[in-house]
Amino acid sequence: MTPDSLYAISLIAENCPGVLRDVASVVAAHNTNILMVQQSIIPCGPNRGKASLYFELEGGEDRGLMIADLVELHCTEDVITYAPFSRIFGSRVIIIGGGAQVAQVAMGAVNEADRHNIRGERISVDTIPLVGEDDLAQAVEAVARLPRASILVLAGSLMGGEISSAVDRVRQAGIPVIALKMAGTVPKHADLVVTDPIQAGVFAVMHVSGKAVFDIYRVRGQEF
Amino acid sequence: MTPDSLYAISLIAENCPGVLRDVASVVAAHNTNILMVQQSIIPCGPNRGKASLYFELEGGEDRGLMIADLVELHCTEDVITYAPFSRIFGSRVIIIGGGAQVAQVAMGAVNEADRHNIRGERISVDTIPLVGEDDLAQAVEAVARLPRASILVLAGSLMGGEISSAVDRVRQAGIPVIALKMAGTVPKHADLVVTDPIQAGVFAVMHVSGKAVFDIYRVRGQEF
After folding, report:
1. Inter-chain CB proximity B33 and A39 less than 8 Å
2. What is the distance in angstroms between the Cα of B58 and the nearest Cα belonging to chain A?
3. Which stretch of DSSP H or E encloses residue B141?
């Protein structure tokens, strides 16, 4: 499947039951895969109260014909085609931990992503500062379900317990984990341990980049 | 609709046509709204090649009964309940622009979000460094389609043209826009113009917070 076979559409529709079923049936009839759907009620403006649906789609034979069939559904009012989020916001570096350290890792990651995005890549840097074992463990585990999450950096001074179990599950889902050098068991569960938060952010972006030569799995278990 | 009526489930299913239709039918039969669906093929591990579906759902009468009906579908193998992303990652502050300035705005926003999240809120700070009018305009416009995007900060030294039109469309979608003081027409289209990037990040988080007293619409058109 080439990247070009991925695209996005949005539709405005009446807010009535069965819209998703009707749209999904048209999409399936054109042998197109649905990768993502978001539905919401439009809160303001001329379409207030109507449903907005956003789809990311892959494959299919005749995109124009499918869109024409969607326009003909009695419930839909407007169909617009977009580039998918993967081509706009790209791969996501996720940074979770204490505010002071999350900000420093983000600085390293944003500046490194800038250098890559200037050359045509798309790497974004997404963060949440949090405290407490339970809240951190829940957020870490949820990274495995986040769309386009490509690497996780844990930025703090003390993390262990349930957070370490969550790190294991994220890595099992295929997402590598970098930890700052810190107290607690998390560094033992991470792929890479980094002392300098700026460098941790740079490493994370270098791993995600399709153009850099760095691969975290070639330095797994090391500490810098 | 109370926040508690929002929840998430994931299912592992055979990768065959009609899974989404079958699941959506069960969900609709229980008077439950689908807010978001993500589908992907599991790339590794014991479930490799199977489909993973993630749903965010709202309302419905008997959640347990609905999940039991989902488990009974012949295509599904496993159904797990989660907290939805809104309760884990919360409202999103989005920062777009040049790397050096995005990093500074992020530092202000992450540190301010830390203070709020310690008190039980959930505010995340998501960024992408980009250059070029077309790429920036495309990213800015896409913010209106991003789930949970609550405010946008444009961090750069020169932005105008198509980017200003995109700012207008994002604001029409109900998302306020802060611009750094910069050359180009973007500051004229923003709700608020801020000179210091750290303060711009702090303002953005203060607006999103449910606990802070700041409301961007009470200072609209001002410059700091």
Report:
1. yes
2. 11
3. helix B133-142
- Both structure tokens of A55: 């789809």
* Nearest CB partner across the interface for A38, out of B36, B107, B131: B36
Q: DSSP letters of B43-75? A: -SSTTTTSEEEEEEEEE-S-HHHHHHHHHHSTT
Name the DSSP letter for residue A214: -
B150-173, pLDDT tens digit by residue?
Answer: 999 999 999 999 999 999 999 998
Please report where in the chains the tokens 């009964």 appear, as a residue.
Answer: B65
Please identify which residue in the block is written with the tokens 């980094």: A194
Say yes or no: B118 contacts chain A, CB-CB below 8 A.
Answer: yes
Widest CA span of chain A, in angstroms? Answer: 60
Q: Which residue of B10, B89, B153 to mutate against A (max A Cβ within 10 Å)?
A: B89
pTM across the whole model: 0.92
Buried b (16+ CB within 10 A) or exposed e, B142-175: bbbbbbebbbbbbbbeebbeebbebbeebbebeb
Q: At what angle do helices A63-72 and A19-29 cross, to 10 degrees?
A: 150
